[in-house]
Amino acid sequence: MIMGCCTARCTLITICFLQLIATVERLIFDFLGYMWIPIIASFANILLILFGLFGTYQYRPKFVIVYILWHVVWLGWNIFIMCLYLSAGVLNVENHMYILNLHTGSESWWKENGFNCSGMYNTTTSSLTGRMDTQLLDVNGCILDYTYIEIIHASVQCLLCLLGISGAIIVLIRFAEDEDSFDFIGGFDSLGYGNSHAQKSPNHLQMQPIYIHHGMS
After folding, report:
1. Global pTM?
2. Could you tell me which of 103, 102, 82, 104 has the C-alpha nearest to residue 93?
3. CA terminus-to-terminus distance, the chain
4. Pick from 18, 25, 16: which is nearest to 51 by CA?
């Protein structure tokens, strides 16, 4: 049972590290594209993954429970991202991008920086400030469209999320089994019981008479 518990903990810790790597990688490209809501969500995910790591390593079930609850939310968020880029139902990536960029007009970094992508730009000069503004008109030649890259990122997060939730549940079960087995053998109560008897005051000890036999002279 101890070996199984260690295996479950090590597996969950490994999953958490993979989640950190995937989230940091996604966070970098969200920063490059100024996608503010995904940036905030990724920071929150990193924080809650650290909660899960701490709870798993230090045998803190409450931290692991918080990790599970957050990843239910994180799973739903990534499913929403997938539906948005797939234009599923009423969602449309062109009309609802403001949900991700907070009306800043920014778009995914991969849209114009994907594999083999070449963008067509319209450059205008302001008559007041003389500043040149560049606007992306179209992107051609991409080996893989940026929407699919974002969907792949979200799919990887969903997969790791499901693995993390499953691993965390197993770890909680192992924690409960270890607590039950510890209580069964007495736990610290048995140690305290023995120590209480060992540390009794001499006043509570029963006095026994001592008989001395004198030999015949």
Report:
1. 0.74
2. 82
3. 71
4. 16
Q: b/e per residue, 196-206, with b = 16+ CB within 10 A?
A: eeeeeeeeeee
- List the structure tokens of 214: 């004198």
Nearest to 49 by CA among 33, 26, 80, 30: 26
Q: Yes or no: say if 51 and 63 are a contact pair by the CB < 8 Å rule.
A: yes
Positive/negative CA dihedral, 42, 46, 48, 49: positive
Question: DSSP 3-state assignment of 148?
Answer: helix
* Placement of tokens 């736990």 in the chain: 187
pLDDT tens string 1-32: 444 446 888 999 999 999 999 999 999 999 99
Angle between helices 36-57 and 61-85 (to 10 degrees): 150
